[in-house]
């Protein structure tokens, strides 16, 4: 574990000096990639480790984002309300994501397979419709909430904020997954009935994984919203946003935590550089096809490819020493 922590420190050092060598446009892309990596890691914590595939992850992100945005929104808002500072609204947003997840998702965790996925998707769609139709003077309706306050301003400060959040989330989740809890979650993914038969309450471990996943999604959601300084249901609850999160985790490597980081960065940049050549749904089709290809031929994603390359070099070195 100490050796692996050394690699984390090297990655942090490299990423910290990166803005000194890349143009501002790339720095902004790196900010977007860091937030996508946070969302992908939060999805992986639940779906990658327990095998309960969630299609409603934007529900958690949206709850946190809307709570923080509503409480901090102040420009042209009707009716008037008390505006709170961000150091209060951000924790409240994260707490709302955890509370909303416990209220709606935890009862559905007693069902398995596609039933859980369908229930999670249903809750996301319900929240989407409620925000548009119910009291739009509070939620902004289909227009959303513009002119939100920013945590920091400028591309470089936002880069370091996003980077710090991403590495804090990554290292925290990495320690959890390397603990006994992580091994139990992996066993639940492989065979939940065997874990139940051994006397372990799988519901408690799934609940812990989901709460941790919800808190991570909420944390990323509030900071990402205030980075964009606007919030609308079209991006928060769109199918494209959901696919971005899932595909980033899948092509990076499910059940690894570090894999979704690579997936988030790869997907962000490949989408940007495909923009001049593929438009609209064709771009979505292209990277969905790439994800399917990776799932079929490299189920462990980029993480598995990196492990294969590492094993190849180790075998070469051993043969050389012999």
Description:
With 322 residues, the protein is mainly alpha-helical. It has a single domain, classed as ABC transporter involved in vitamin B12 uptake, BtuC, CATH 1.10.3470. Helix content is 75%, strand content 0%. It contains 15 helices and no strands. The protein has helices spanning 2-17, 24-50, 57-72, 86-104, 114-133, 136-139, 155-177, 180-190, 192-197, 202-228, 233-236, 239-252, 258-274, 281-297, 301-321. Helix 2 packs parallel to helix 7.
Please bin the fraction of helical residues.
over 70%
Strand content: under 5%
Q: What is the number of E strands?
A: 0
Kindly give the count of domains.
1
> What CATH architecture label applies?
Orthogonal Bundle
> Radius of gyration in whole Å, from Cα?
20 Å
Number of helices: 15
What is the terminal-to-terminal distance?
28 Å
What is the helix/strand order?
HHHHHHHHHHHHHHH
* Largest sheet composition: none
CATH topology: ABC transporter involved in vitamin B12 uptake, BtuC
What best-fitting shape do the alpha-carbon axes yield?
A: globular
Uncertain segments: none
The level-1 CATH class = Mainly Alpha
Q: Could you tell me the mean pLDDT?
A: 85
Structural class: mainly alpha
Short summary of the structure?
The mean pLDDT is 85. By secondary structure, the protein is mainly α.
Any descriptors?
single chain, 322 residues, mainly alpha, ABC transporter involved in vitamin B12 uptake, BtuC, 15 helices, 75% helix
What is the secondary structure topology, with strand pairs?
Elements: H1 2-17, H2 24-50, H3 57-72, H4 86-104, H5 114-133, H6 136-139, H7 155-177, H8 180-190, H9 192-197, H10 202-228, H11 233-236, H12 239-252, H13 258-274, H14 281-297, H15 301-321
